[in-house]
């Protein structure tokens, strides 16, 4: 049943926004669509579709996206969240800043000023916010400074919905036009790639070529293969567009032929913009470690026993999140506290693109709650440090025996008959750096040693990556998502039931869902989007 919109006026053409990025609650894949057209397929499972498809009126032109707004529905907790938009001048991009409220049968949006909705100049004419919920579809129109109270409940099966628009004219929507300066730079890169590809082809086809030169040229050609396929497809579409334009000029008197050519030209332009976006993403710098597995390290910080209990909760949160995404989670080592919390814990997470998705989780996670050891009911603040390390192979990090000191000792703590009876615990120290790793979880000394060497390789690999990255960019600490472990990145406030990520200003009021690994994607997706937008901003400034 749709919401009662009261006497809400129909939006004019300049206030209607166009971009809807819908994140499936089940698959987590981002699907980009215009608001114009059917969205039902992305809002519910196919078997729930029974109502006729709704379409926005064709008389509303769809302007270029210019602001950033998030409306997120959690189908499990029935919670609706509304984002406010903020801008960081030093990054020249807009950020998400989530201000959620709980849904309890009646959805109320009192005043958008209460939620500090900030918009850029290009969208200052927005008047109200209208939410129209149906069984499989909702329509949104943006207004400002008007009250709206709905009278019927919101369906809980609807997936998370992101309304994403940027302040620099760039959109993640594949059908939106790229800025002219970005197109100019991209065309220069395309010409350079084509020239390099032609040069490498000539090298390979020479009658006399050394084995080393042939191998090097062949390797570089493989790296350019995906970009060249997109470039060839883009060139083909550009030729098709030129042909359609000439056909329209030749057949100006034939209306039927001209209309057919105009329709095909419109489709070709949409296809051209889609391949331009794909090519732009392929030209952005990539982190080679994003596709690697990772090692999760959790350490209790300030806060005593309460910090160790929260470290256990955080460790289990990532374990549940990994299971929900179909990743393999294996415990490496756990050092328990006196009240069964975790002083330190580490584990390996294996799966496609694990490190690339979790790399921004590194940092200080702060918790505010009443500890179980507190009798007076006071709220305490504790901290836990999280480290996400890309897993390194033996080829990446060479460990020489003369650089290692291996100590064995008897394991301690709970563990049955094997505790304090055999020298199964292993401590491996890397002498040049002083890094030490101690493992005692396994009964076998050889297994503990193998795990310790695995963790040591990951730490050395991350140290080298950080050193190279710091030398290449002195501004890393000033950027969002730096992952610096010295900064507080997230706060878990249990009395208020909220989780806030301080790097991007997102707040989620379903802390129980976050601790169960349900809502982590809200933060991770926003951070990955911010990384992509920063990369595009850096690309356009070159």
Question: Main attributes?
Answer:
542 residues; alpha+beta; Alpha-Beta Plaits; 8-stranded mixed β-sheet; 6-stranded antiparallel β-sheet; 9 helices; flat; disordered N terminus; PCRF
Structural features, described:
Helices cover 33% and strands 24% of the residues. It has 542 residues and is of the alpha+beta class. The protein has 3 domains: 19-173, no CATH class; 180-283; 288-495, Alpha-Beta Plaits (2-Layer Sandwich). The strands form 5 sheets. It has an 8-stranded mixed beta sheet. A 6-stranded antiparallel beta sheet has the order 2-1-10-3-4-5, with helices on one face. A hairpin with a 4-residue loop joins strand 20 and strand 21. Helix 2 (180-204) packs across helix 3 and helix 3 packs antiparallel against helix 4. It is flat and about 90 Å long.
- What is the level-2 CATH architecture name of the largest domain? 2-Layer Sandwich
**How do the strands line up in the largest sheet?**
12-13-11-15-14-19-20-21
- What's the average pLDDT? 65
Termini separation comes to: 51 Å
Stated plainly, the CATH topology of the largest domain is called: Alpha-Beta Plaits
Low-confidence stretches: 1-175, 471-486
Report the total helices: 9
InterPro entries: PCRF (IPR005139), Pep_chain_release_fac_I (IPR000352), Pep_chain_release_fac_I_sf (IPR045853), Prokaryotic/Mito_RF (IPR050057), RF-1 (IPR004373)
Family: Belongs to the prokaryotic/mitochondrial release factor family.
GO cellular component, one term: cytoplasm
GO molecular function: translation release factor activity, codon specific
